[in-house]
């Protein structure tokens, strides 16, 4: 996808706002717009704010590769690593942008002249007018003063305490039931470990819970590993035979040399490697797969589900790592979230998504059905 972003202030600092546009790279079709009045701020803060809004919109739409186009030489050069970020007020914004960048497989930054950035520039100017009290904010009928955000531009989801009234694609996320390795607290990645007797009972209880939540399910989409496919079959049976579809991209992270070992053993034998893995989603276990690579797979699945099952309910049966990444993205959380969230065997979460990028996380790791 392409992200075009701009921002400005009238007075520097002065009434400020930003605009951002996300386009489909091949056709140029506009997929999302963002615009907001910022109150009083500087040009550079507004430009970085436009970048953040554009990257977040692209992430919400499931982009994997992004080209950012801006007429701000400063932002392009700083985000490309060629210029230092000397102003202390810009460093937190640049750090937020860097965190968003890590959610994609590839991000490039390109400087373009202002005349080639007209769409984002126009959105930013409307937002600046709103910040100055000269016009209504984009997409809203109320004036905006200092510190009060404008509504998003047409075509983007409005901020609200309530989800949209239209029917979402609802994802019921299920971790597979317990295995013998689960009870022994061992890394269980690509090894095809079956459900234990406890895990099978958990899968059946989860099927009953899913049937109570959503009697009409379009499909049960599952990782190819047997601990997931058996869980999916039990859920399907509780739903009177909902179709089960195997999706290879839902497979667990490859833990490489750590596969089958206890957490304590790995900490003892690979302390430096574990610290690096816990510290960055770009690091992988020896011979294994990074969480960033897992995220690429998960986002492909999300895009497929949103396109293939509009306004439908889908059960997704997978493993800890893919489900944590999906929930992290849905909540717009940072990477630390991955090591702070616990997902029980056969735990259940619910995420609603809309075509415009709107997301509502309704529950995380429900386990009452397992009591």
TrEMBL record:
Biased amino acid composition, Low complexity: 141-157
Stretches for region Disordered: 129-170
Domain RNase H type-1 span(s) in chain numbering: 1-133
Any Gene Ontology CC annotation: cytoplasm
Binding positions (substrate): 227
CDD domains xrefs: HP_PGM_like, RNase_HI_like
Cross-referenced Gene3D superfamilies: Phosphoglycerate mutase-like, Ribonuclease H-like superfamily/Ribonuclease H
Active site: 176 (tele-phosphohistidine intermediate), 252 (proton donor/acceptor), 252 (proton donor/acceptor)
UniProt cross-references to InterPro entries, sorted A to Z: His_Pase_superF_clade-1, His_PPase_superfam, PGM_Phosphatase, RNaseH-like_sf, RNaseH/PGlycerate_mutase, RNaseH_domain, RNaseH_sf
GO molecular function, one term: phosphatase activity
Short name of any one Pfam family annotated for the protein: RVT_3
Domain of life: Bacteria
NCBIfam families (alphabetical): PRK07238.1
Protein name: Bifunctional RNase H/acid phosphatase
Native species: Phytohabitans rumicis
